[in-house]
Amino acid sequence: MARTRLYRDGVLEAENFPVADVSDHLADTGATVWLDMCGPTEEDLASIAEELNLHRLAVEDAVHEHQRPKLDRYQTHAFLTAYAVRLDTTTGMLGKFEVAAFLTEGALVTVRKDEGFAIDEVVARWDGAQDLAKGGVGFLVHGLLDYVVDSHFDAVQTLDEEIEALEDLVFADNADHKEIQRRSLHLRKSLVTLRRVVLPMREVVNTLMRRDLHIVDDMLMPYYQDVYDHVLRATEWTESLRDLVTTIRETQLSLQGNRLNTVMKKVTSWAAIIAVPTAVTGFYGQNVPYPGFDKLWGFWASTIAIVALGGGLYVAFRRRDWL
């Protein structure tokens, strides 16, 4: 089902009216119309595309998935693609939800690929800033971008917390290295995905603020500047976290290498200790007479020699922290 809204002179006048009435409302120069569609086909968009004179390439991009975040300019309108994101803290995987938008002089048409994009949160932002509604389409686009960029910021903040928890796991006494590797790879994959949707938003927001597009007026310009600032912070934060995950992975490998060296030193030390009694018993095992041959005191002499030499090696290795 399509959702609609009508603002007239900055006041919300109608909601959820039939799509067929859009053209009648757009005849009024003081009216601003919002139309939202979820999962439409090209045939579903055909009527509104003809009414608003939307470019065929833009309509195709709105229907097809996995578009790059961008802002394309056409003769009668602009076309925007963006992604809201949500991090699953259980798996460390990032979900992204695509939205396309047609920006005309008096209308904003949003096209969601599925229900994962929470359009109700966008509407709540519009309702919470009714004093800005006089900005027309620029006001609607700001609410849309504000939700998208805030989802990026929330995701990168949660990723930061998850990476801090991963740091604690790396230095834990009984660290589960397999789990740490799995978690770090998932977080790195999520950061790569987040970077792909965050980085292009700098160009998108910056282009929207250009005066020649006539979308952002002087009243809305500070609010777009705030969104742009959030985009820059999210981008820089994402880049730093990618480096941090790499550092954590390298630190884990270094710790594993150090632990392996410690184990090898201990194994070598014990092998040396065991080699001493082996040598003594092997020597006394020769088929030749030796001091104490066939005597009880000879047995005790060899036993004491084994214990003394092995104990001496243990003490020496212990002082060198090899054991």
TrEMBL record:
<dbReference type="GO" id="GO:0000287">
    <property type="term" value="F:magnesium ion binding"/>
</dbReference>
<keyword id="KW-0812">Transmembrane</keyword>
<dbReference type="GO" id="GO:0050897">
    <property type="term" value="F:cobalt ion binding"/>
</dbReference>
<dbReference type="Pfam" id="PF01544">
    <property type="entry name" value="CorA"/>
</dbReference>
<feature type="transmembrane region" description="Helical">
    <location>
        <begin position="267"/>
        <end position="285"/>
    </location>
</feature>
<comment type="similarity">
    <text>Belongs to the CorA metal ion transporter (MIT) (TC 1.A.35) family.</text>
</comment>
<keyword id="KW-0472">Membrane</keyword>
<dbReference type="GO" id="GO:0015095">
    <property type="term" value="F:magnesium ion transmembrane transporter activity"/>
</dbReference>
<protein>
    <submittedName>
        <fullName>Magnesium transporter</fullName>
    </submittedName>
</protein>
<dbReference type="GO" id="GO:0005886">
    <property type="term" value="C:plasma membrane"/>
</dbReference>
<dbReference type="InterPro" id="IPR002523">
    <property type="entry name" value="MgTranspt_CorA/ZnTranspt_ZntB"/>
</dbReference>
<keyword id="KW-0813">Transport</keyword>
<feature type="transmembrane region" description="Helical">
    <location>
        <begin position="297"/>
        <end position="317"/>
    </location>
</feature>
<keyword id="KW-1003">Cell membrane</keyword>
<dbReference type="InterPro" id="IPR045863">
    <property type="entry name" value="CorA_TM1_TM2"/>
</dbReference>
<keyword id="KW-1133">Transmembrane helix</keyword>
<dbReference type="GO" id="GO:0015087">
    <property type="term" value="F:cobalt ion transmembrane transporter activity"/>
</dbReference>
<dbReference type="InterPro" id="IPR045861">
    <property type="entry name" value="CorA_cytoplasmic_dom"/>
</dbReference>
